[in-house]
Amino acid sequence: MHIQIINFNLDGLSHQDYSNACNEIAQTFADLPGLISKHWLNNEETNTYGGVYFWETKEAMQDYLTSEVFAQVANNPSFANATSKDFAVLEGPTKITRGIT
Predict the structure, then answer these.
(1) 26 inside domain
(2) Strand partners, 48
(3) Is there a domain that residue 100 lies in?
(4) 91 in any annotated domain
(5) Which structural domain range is residue 78 located in?
(6) pLDDT 10s per residue in the chain (101 long)?
(7) N or C: which end of the chain has fewer CB within 10 A?
(8) How many domains does the chain have?
(9) Cβ contacts of 39-48, under 8 Å, gap ≥ 24
């Protein structure tokens, strides 16, 4: 398993409009090959949004990074200060703490 965390700030888009758009496009993400789950993040107080992606493999994440879906997200002018970080998972302790492996 591989984890990816994406964060950004909304620029010219309200929290409610963003939430509505997320509901409309959630299935697009659900259909991504190799995606186990995506947890949608928001902190309206700090204007920080994003997602935690659980991928089957690092390769699946890398395929997403070169996909049309990611290009649309990465080029969205309403997403400012975007960052993407990825992490390997320590399988042993993750199983103990009831994580997905």
Answers:
(1) yes
(2) 43
(3) no
(4) no
(5) 2-84
(6) 999 999 999 999 999 999 999 999 999 999 999 999 999 999 999 999 999 999 999 999 999 999 999 999 899 999 999 999 999 999 899 889 987 65
(7) C
(8) 1
(9) 41/7, 42/15, 42/18, 44/15, 47/9, 47/10, 48/7, 48/8, 48/9
Sign of dihedral through CA atoms 98, 34, 88, 54?
negative
Residue 101 has what pLDDT?
59
- Name the H helices within the chain: 15-30, 58-65, 68-74, 91-96
CATH number at residue 34: 3.30.70.100
Pair 60, 33: CB distance under 8 Å? yes
Joined tokens for residue 100: 């997905």
Token readout for 87 is 């992490």
